[in-house]
Amino acid sequence: MTNFFLSPFLDNEFLRHALFAGILVSLICAVAGTFVVLRGLAFVGDALAHGVLPGIATALILGVSGVFGAMVGAAVMMGGVNLVTRKLRLSGDTSVGLLFVGMLALGVMITSRSKSFSGDLTRILFGELLGVSWSQLAWQTVAFILVGTTAWVCRRPFLLLCVDEGLTESSGFSVRKYHVIMLTLVAITIVASFQTVGTLLVLGMLIAPPATGALLSRRLSTMIIIAAVSGSIATYAGLLISYHADLAAGASIVLSAVALFAFTATVREFRLSLRRTNRADDELPHQHTHIRP
Amino acid sequence: MTSNSVNARSLSVGYDRRPVVVDMTFDLTPGNLMVLIGTNGSGKSTLLKTLAGMLAPLSGEVLVLGQNPGALPSRVAFLPQHPVSSHTLPLRAEDVVEMGRFAHLGLLKRETPADRLIVKESMFRTGVHEFAKLPLRDLSGGQQQRTHLAQVLARQAEVLLLDEPTAGLDVNGRGAVDSLISEERSRGVTVVMATHEISDAENANIVMLLAQRVVAIGPPADVLRDDYLRECFGFTQPH
Fold first, then answer.
1. pLDDT (mean) for B173-198
2. Which stretches of chain B sit within 8 Å of chain A by CB?
3. Which CATH class is domain A2-278?
4. How wide is the angle at C-alpha A15 spanned by C-alphas A195 and A53, nearest 5°?
C-alpha cells in the first residue's frame, strides 16, 4: 500500500520536482485565488491567463524566456482592459471578453509561425509539469514570497474591496490603485504557474481550492489556509493518478481540485439539510395522544 | 466659506459630467442632522457620495470639516446603501465591525486594545454582540444592516453620512437607529442621512426634498408641506 502512495515520489526525481512545483502553485494560487473568488474576478483571471499567450509565443519564437514574454503579455492585457473599460464605456465583461478572444487568437497566430506549432501550443496551454527545473522552482518561490507579502500588506484595502468599493474609498484607500495591485498579483500568479499547469488550467487552481476554502471558513485567513491545503492535496492526488493511470499531470491535478470542491460542497449541503430537518422537528408542536378510559 | 462641519455653495453633483442635482447651498454645524428625502434616483445617494469624496463635485464648492471631501477618512464615516455581502465572503459580524477602524489604522498600523474596546462598544450599542461570532452570510437583512451601522460607529467620526440606514429594519430597529443618531448628535457629531421615510425627518435641523433638483430645503416645519411633498413624490405621504 505504501508503495502505491509513496514510491512514485521516492523513486522518481522528476515527480518530486513536479510535487514541489505543484505545491508552490497551490500556495500562490491560494493567496491570489482567494481574492479572485471573493471579488468575482474569475472572468478577468481567465482573460489574463489567455492574455499571456501572445507574449509567451513571441518569446518562444525569439528564443527568449517564456516568463518574460508572459509578463509582457499580462501587462498588455491589464493595460488594455483598463483602457477599453475607461475610454469606450463598455461594461467590464464585454471589454474583458473582447481582449480575451483577441489576445487568444493573436497567440495562436504567432504560435502557428513556429516549426513545432502543436507541441508549443500544447506546452503553453497545458503546462509541462513533469519537466520542471530548479530555476523554475526558484522563480515560483520568489513569486510566492512577493504575492504573499503584498497580499499581507494590502490585506485591509483588499478586504474592503471584497465588501464594498464605496466603503474602500471612504476608508481612505483608492479603489483604482488597490484593484490594479490585486490584478497584478493575479497576473504574477498566472506567470508563475503557467509552466506547471499551463495557461488553460491555471484558472482551475485559482478558483477551485479557494472556493473549497470559502465553503468551510468564517475568516479570510482560514480561507487562504484551507485553499492552500486543498490545492496541495489535489496536487499530490493528481500526480498519483497521473502516474498510475498514465494521464496528463496538469489536468489530473485540476480535476482533483474540482472533485475536492464538489465533495466538500456535497458533504456541507448534506449536513446543512440534516440540521434544517432536525430544527424543523424540534419546532413542531408536541402532539399528545389522549387515551380515553 | 466658514469652516464648520459641512459647507456647500452652489454645489452641483452627478456622474460623468451629467448633473443629477444642481445649485445646492447649505451649512451644517456640529450636532446638526440633515435629512435628504426623495424617490429612487432623486440624487440623495449622489450627494452623499460627493460628500464622502467618492464623486467629484461637478461645480460649486463643498467642504467637509474644512477640507475637500474624502481628505479626512478617519473623521468622516459613510454607510453605503445596501452594502454588498457576497455569499462567499468569509467574515463574521465582528470582523465587519473591526473594518470600521481601518481608516485609523491605514495599511500597517497594529490594532491596539483601545481599537478593540471601541469595536466592542459599537457592537453593544447596536446589539451586534449577540451574533458577533456568526458569519455575515448567515445573518438576516436587519442583522446585517445593524452590523454595518456598528462599523460606522466604530469609525468614531465627526461626520456620519448614512444612506438609508433604516432600510430592512423593523419598527424596533428603526427606533434603535433614531436613538443612536440622537446619541451621536449629542456628542457633537453631524449626521447627513438619506431616507424615503418622512417620519425620519421630524427631528432634523435641515430637510432637503430632492427630485433631481432641490424641491425645498429648510427646517422640517417649513419643508414637510403637502405641496412640496406632492412635487417631490408625485403624491402626498401620510405624516
1. 91
2. 49, 52-54, 70, 73-74, 76-78, 80, 83-86, 88-92, 95-96, 99, 102-103, 105-108, 135, 161
3. mainly alpha
4. 10
Around Cβ A33, how many Cβ atoms within 10 Å? 32
Candidate ranges A128-142, A160-174, A190-204, A267-281; pick with highest mean pLDDT:
A160-174
DSSP conformational letter for A89: -
- Beta B190-195 vs B33-38: how paired, if at all? parallel
The angle at the Cα of B171, spanning B122 to B230, to the nearest 5 degrees, equals 115
pTM for the complete prediction?
A: 0.86
Looking at every residue in chain B, the average pLDDT score rounds to 89
Amino acid at A250: G
CATH number assigned to the domain covering B1-70+190-239: 3.40.50.300
Residues 6+ apart with CB under 8 A from A114: A57, A60, A61, A120
Domain boundaries defined on chain A: 2-278
Which residue in B123, B113, B178 sits closest to B153, CA to CA?
A: B123
**In sequence order, which residues have a C-beta less than 8 Å from that of residue A175 and are 6 or more positions away?**
A161, A165, A168, A169
The partner residue sitting opposite B92, judged by closest CB among A163, A164, A218, is: A218
Task: Kindly calculate the radius of gyration of chain B based on its CA atoms and give it in whole angstroms.
Answer: 18
**Using CA atoms, how far apart are residues A212 and A227, in angstroms rounded to an integer?**
7
Strand partners, B79: B162
Give the residue extent of every domain in chain B. Answer: 1-70+190-239
Best of B47, B91, B148, B159 to substitute, by most chain A Cβ atoms within 10 angstroms, is B91
| Contact flag A172-B92 (C-beta cutoff 8 Å) | no
Q: Tell me if residue B78 falls in helix, strand or coil.
A: strand
Contacts of A76 (CB under 8 A, 6+ apart): A51, A54, A55, A103
State the cell numbers at A172.
481612505
Q: Is the pLDDT of residue A287 over 70?
A: no
Element (H, E) at B26: strand B18-28
How far CA A195 is from CA of A64, A108, A251, in Å, comes to: 15, 17, 13
